[in-house]
Amino acid sequence: MAIHYPNGGLFTTKNSASKKSRANNTIYGKRGMSLEDEINESNKYYLSAGIAVIHKKPTPIQIVDVYYPKRSAAVIKKAYFKQASTTDYNGVYRGHYLDFEAKETKNKTSFPLSNFHAHQIKHMKACQDQAGICFTIVKFVTTDQVFLMPANILFDYWDAQATGRKSIPKAVIERDGFEIDYALRPRIPYLNYVDLLLEK
Amino acid sequence: MAIHYPNGGLFTTKNSASKKSRANNTIYGKRGMSLEDEINESNKYYLSAGIAVIHKKPTPIQIVDVYYPKRSAAVIKKAYFKQASTTDYNGVYRGHYLDFEAKETKNKTSFPLSNFHAHQIKHMKACQDQAGICFTIVKFVTTDQVFLMPANILFDYWDAQATGRKSIPKAVIERDGFEIDYALRPRIPYLNYVDLLLEK
């Protein structure tokens, strides 16, 4: 039951707001899971259920020094992280090639283009030219909202950033993308929204 | 001109055979390139020509210890190689998802199944179930012959190995696969043979 002030206004406090937030989060299951964890778990489900084969690519490493101890596995003694030249995730779903990035932002009203490197955009454009399905899964962490943002939105803002703004307004993502409702299995059922993309 | 023995048999020596082999190798360009190098170079060509987007996945690494020096890039101080759970190559070609391994063998008459792990076979089967195009590029290094071997050949021998042989006869690969002729650009024009697979 909602409690009202004598003037009719709804009674809310920071406390009740945080309770609501906690209640919402209950269906998300594990608190504090990163978007990457959530997507990896979703992909695991999709794989085991025979729905799709999507994997996160390993982080590229530049190996400088490897030590081979006798009778045991090689040990990398020195290596550096390399910048990825592609996106993080790809795979196959009902004959379609999927290729996407997953990004979290703490921003409230827009998604900064600085989340991407030029070669990732180039990669996604090349994949789309080959009739691959490209998108970004964007999470606004302050509101726990997750969107599937088709790559064309990203391309439009990326290509205009020299003269335009350096971020994509959340309102545009809400209008032209798809908000993904959290579920139980999989946690982030993004393939439902890929189906909508394919119907377009 | 072929030189014949008085009995009509063709005159061959180890020496002339190796000369022939060397002559063949001239068109391959760089001697001593590994199959992986040759495929990476071919993929680079396919990408730059807008023909396909195929990448080798980074080697998966288990990072144990990372050092973050001030004002410079993170240095991995200890890490191990992990076993890959998928194949080495995947990507998109004219709307098709491609997924493959590249393997060299020094064997002369067969290709050992020990080149694969169970989870790679499982991965390729799952991809094929999603209408992905799966195959292995096999190089017989002693004769410098490269074949595109459709995944079904591998699956058949893999599934029968408990009671059957532990390798795929080269004769079967020659009969049911495609021998890839080396070329200049790209060095290994395997997509020509993917076209044949798609026509089937």
Walk me through this protein's architecture.
Chains A, B: It is an enzyme of class 3 (hydrolase). Chains A, B: It comes from Ligilactobacillus murinus. Chains A, B: Mg(2+) binds at residues 86, 88, 101, 120. Chains A, B: It catalyses: Endonucleolytic cleavage at a junction such as a reciprocal single-stranded crossover between two homologous DNA duplexes (Holliday junction). Two copies of one chain form a homodimer. Chain A is 32% helix and 28% strand. Chain A is an alpha+beta fold and 200 residues long. Chain A has a domain at 48-57 and 84-200: Trna Endonuclease, Chain: A, domain 1. In chain A, a hairpin with a 2-residue loop joins strand 4 (89-93) and strand 5 (96-105). At the A-B interface, strand 3, strand 4, strand 5 and helix 3 of A face strand 3, strand 4, strand 5 and helix 3 of B. Strand 3 of chain A pairs antiparallel with strand 3 (75-81) of chain B.
